[in-house]
Amino acid sequence: MVQSNGGCASASPAAASSCEQSGKSAADLGLNLDDPSLSSDVVSKVTSHPCYSPEGHKYARIHLPVAPACNIQCNYCNRKFDCSNESRPGVVSKLLSPAKGVQRFVKVKERIPETNVVGIAGPGDPLANPAATLATLKAAAKQDSDVHLCVSTNGLALLELVPSLVKVGVSHLTITINCIDAAIGAKIYPWIYFNHKRLRGREASQVLIDRQLAGLKAAVAAGMLVKVNTVLIPGINDHHIEALAQELKLHGALLHNIMPLISDPAHGTYFGLTGQRQPTEDEVAEARAAAGSNMAQMSHCQQCRADAVGHLGQDIDLDADESVKPVQQEVAESYLVAVATKSDVLIDQHFGHAQSFALYQIYEDSIAPMGRRDVSQYCVDNECDETESRMASMLQALEGVSSVLCARIGMTPWQALEQAGVMPSTDYALFDIQQALSALQQQWLEQGKFSQQSRCKEAV
Amino acid sequence: MAYSITSACIGCNACKLVCPQKAIVSSATGYAIAEHRCNECVGHHADPQCASICPIETAIVDQDHRALNPPGSLTGLPNERQVIAMTKLAAKVSGGKGGAHATNG
């Protein structure tokens, strides 16, 4: 159910150009790429990103859903909702770990080579999950140095993260700013989590607005292309758009994307359930015109999901794709599992801190302890990044192991282990070792990972 | 003294990121609070952090199973009890009207 508001949303070149001709006002309000104040670098960054300009439609983007947590609540969002029939911002079907996210990017890039944008847009707020977001972006840039890194945020945690975003190479940033008046904000945001507290009402929206504008300014100063998204909510912020656009211009935003509120009651959002209506197409056009004197307007937004993949308006269904692929799974009679543990009772050790692993052989019907195996510690003096040689000896030491259970593990060793065919897992962090191994055994039984051979033996 | 997570949890991971005690554990089956680690944030912060960021009402409860974020407290949406009360009220009002009509008729 992709909303397409106005014909300009189409991703096909023919439709986009015909739209530019017919929808004159919309085109006039857009970013003037001939503007001498725009550097050629900015123009190329804008035109090669499908979300920043209709010219970017020949490129494709991938949103990696690695950021589930959020630090605010918006009345147009329902955190409980996920439905495969639904398509709107903030919604995903399946979360990914940073490592899996990068894997997905590599796979998609093989299929759609023009995928040049890796974005993180949720399903929560990317900057409320800074570790996962930054790790994913860093790893994506490592895979493809030409990729544009893109983040979409509510802006609450932006200010102090601008340096980190610049460091990993984020070039495109989107902040959703719906108002600059706390009285209006109080009708949109029931609460925010800030400075270890849940704030509500006007206080909450004042903090959010201040932080958004400060973050916007800092991001622009740091050289990022900043687009501002505004959800148009009739009767709440529609009379306020001009003042908002003025302020955005003052703070240096490049583009303004006014999106119509989606308030289908079936989505279970506050606005949906309390009968807040969506704006008409005319109202959206009016708002864009009101903002247009100050801010270049964008009108081809598809309001896509936080796990969207492909060309704008032609999302591919990755889940269907992944499930069709025949699962080639190796089966064996038993598996060797390495456990990072200090206490020998709980799975309580960081992978990188382990100097030895407790080994267990998991059979279909039993679990046998196999003693400990020494390894050279992976992380030394917090220098976990320059450890390729240590990883090689670690992999040697872990030979024959099919899975490693630990309390925590860094992104780099996770990927290296996976590549070497060893499955790392933090699913059982702080679990009792025996309980975890039993759970794993059960899981593998259900997946049919144990070979027929042992089952036959048992039957005889 | 420890909180726990109910089946209302949607697994957004927010609590795990803000817990100063690293008491929140997650697995394929869901999220839980390691009882021996949770100190309800006493000595860390004025408010328990998990309950301060959790977006889901009734997902985090105290030892007596009292929700730290009771129904209606986060979304502002009318909760079940309010809906029942409002329905009763509406029935009363329309019932009253109906009665008036009946006498008029």
What would you say this structure looks like, in words?
The complex is a heterodimer of chains A (460) and B (105). Chain A folds into two domains: 316 residues, Aldolase class I (TIM Barrel, Alpha-Beta Barrel); 126 residues, Nucleotidyltransferase, domain 5 (2-Layer Sandwich). The N and C termini of chain A lie far apart (55 Å). Helix content of chain A is 35%, strand content 18%. The longest helix of chain A is centred in the middle third of the chain and has 21 residues. Chain A is built from 16 helices and 17 strands. The N terminus and C terminus of chain A are likely disordered. A nine-stranded mixed beta sheet of chain A has the order 10-9-8-5-4-3-1-11-12. Chain A is of the alpha/beta class and 460 residues long. Chain B has 105 residues and is α+β, with helices and mostly antiparallel strands. Chain B has two domains: 71 residues, Alpha-Beta Plaits (2-Layer Sandwich); 29 residues. Chain B has three helices and four strands. In chain B, the strands form two sheets. A two-stranded antiparallel sheet of chain B has the order 1-4. In chain B, strands 2-3 form a two-stranded antiparallel ribbon. In chain B, a hairpin with a 2-residue loop joins strand 2 and strand 3. Chain B is elongated. The C terminus of chain B is likely disordered. At the A-B interface, loops of A face helix 1, strand 2 and helix 2 of B. Chain B: Keywords: Iron, Iron-sulfur, Metal-binding. Chain B: This is 4Fe-4S binding protein. Chain B: It comes from Neiella holothuriorum. Chain B: InterPro entries: 4Fe4S_Fe-S-bd, 4Fe4S_Fe_S_CS. Chain A: It comes from Neiella holothuriorum. Chain A: Belongs to the radical SAM superfamily. NifB family.
